[in-house]
Amino acid sequence: MNPWRLRLLTQLDTLGTIRAVAQAASLSPSSVSQQLAVLEAETRTRLLERTGRRVRLTSAGLILARRARAILDHMDSVETELRGFGEEPAGTVRLGAFQSAIHTMAVPAVTRLAREYPRLDVELLQLEPHESMPALRGGDADLIITTTDFDELPLGPDLDLVPLARDPILLVVPPEHPAAGRSAADLAAYADEPWAIDVPQSYMANLTLRLCRQSRFEPHVVCRFSNYMMALQHVEAGLSITLLPGLAVDHSRYRVATTQLTTPVSRTITAAIRRGTPPRAAVRVVLDALRHTPDLPSLERE
Predict the structure, then answer these.
(1) Which residues of 247-275 are buried (b: 16+ CB within 10 A; e: fewer)?
(2) DSSP assignment letter at 231
(3) Mean per-residue pLDDT, 66-85
(4) Can you list the alpha helix ranges (DSSP code H) found in the chain?
(5) Which residue, among 259, 129, 135, has the nearest Cα to 207 in the 3D structure?
(6) How many Å apart are CA 73 and CA 70, to the nearest integer?
(7) pTM for the full model?
């Protein structure tokens, strides 16, 4: 089996259409179709089926596409080893990170790596925790920064996890709010407040609802923002209160006050890579850079 054709097959599984694969690979759709037909001949297996004007993978095609990712990862690892252990890490590493970790953890790490390893390219992808695990497992990311608390995310023996830090969950209020001067906040005392919450089914939306319900109230939601900066602006204007991770609160830009919860809650910030083959040198060096990101005020390093 030709690895280039295997890569086209994995892209079809990810992107969904021949046209999208052709654009990503800088080929014509007919060339992609021809190469996939050759792959079918090489494997002696029907990998594609037509449904109207679209092409989709057969069951065998799906299995091969997903196994092919591991094969291609292993080939990348072997190529790196053949270039020599002492050589400079090179190539592209796709790093997925949730919103508040991009500027505070990923960008500082990538900036240092750009100075030290000019042949290394790190592609940053904004992926919230519920998106990053599937992207890592599917081969669309090589390394992710995610969270592994509150039983939100399916873990398994296919991933290697490296704890990076712990980040407290804080009550965020306008600076003149009565809670601003308190050392800790009991959520039950804020049952009648207007709340800003993340979009439905997101990590912070689910966590906020869970903590409020544990305090025996349903929050009065007045807005939903997928962007922490918009939530901070809303709170700063005195229109709501919210729960946010400490890493997401930028006190230099927003006039808000933060208070720890009476029963402290925190999330574990974790790096994850696929298990099965030794990570490429380029992936290892990005992981090491994340582990040595300078400490931030709100974080407790692991």
Answers:
(1) bbbeeeebebbbbbbbeebbbbbbbbbbe
(2) H
(3) 69
(4) 3-15, 18-25, 29-43, 59-82, 99-101, 107-116, 129-137, 203-214, 228-236, 281-291
(5) 129
(6) 5
(7) 0.63
